[in-house]
Design brief:
mainly alpha, 13 helices, elongated
Length: 213
Amino acid sequence: LILLGRIDLQQSDFTKAKQSFEKLSGSGRNFYRGLMASFFGDHKNTTSLLEEAKKNPEYRDRARVILGAYEEFSLFPDGNPLHRDLLLAKAYHDLGFYEMAIRSSKNILKKEEKYRDAWILLGHSYLSLEQYQLAKNILEEALEMSPARAQTAYFLGLTEAALKDYENAITHLIAAKKNGFTPQAEAMRSLAEVYIAAEYYEAAKDEYDSLLG
């Protein structure tokens, strides 16, 4: 049932996935039911189910990722519910439920078209699914909204590298470094790898020397 539900998620059939997880008993039942409750907006039920899931060592860490989104949102008493939805979408992404992150991000953007962080998360989710052209289009939109945002430039550079557009990938990875992407070492390593792919070996050597420093 868990495998069937996860396949439903990968096919973006979220209602069918919820039905599969509802049939679960024993290990995983509380986690997957809590996961779907959060996705469908039943936030009160989510926390009680995931608190139960935390008691199972197999699901403890995963339950904490979703609960962490609620805990962070609780720090903002007058917070916009779209912020909570974004935190949950990021949790889905971090847990590898990329299709859920995509649907949640799109729902946010329907309500607030210029929500830059939702654009970034949407692009990164497509990048994680190796849907590179879609990721590129979305991340370019996000970068246009905020040209100095290091995270956007970094993800766009990775996407362009996957598309073998090495010149633009180098440009955006350098911009990510200059604009303070963290961890800085990760940006340097990615840039060095693109230099190698583009056959700029001296530049790659210099980048690795800097990284070792």
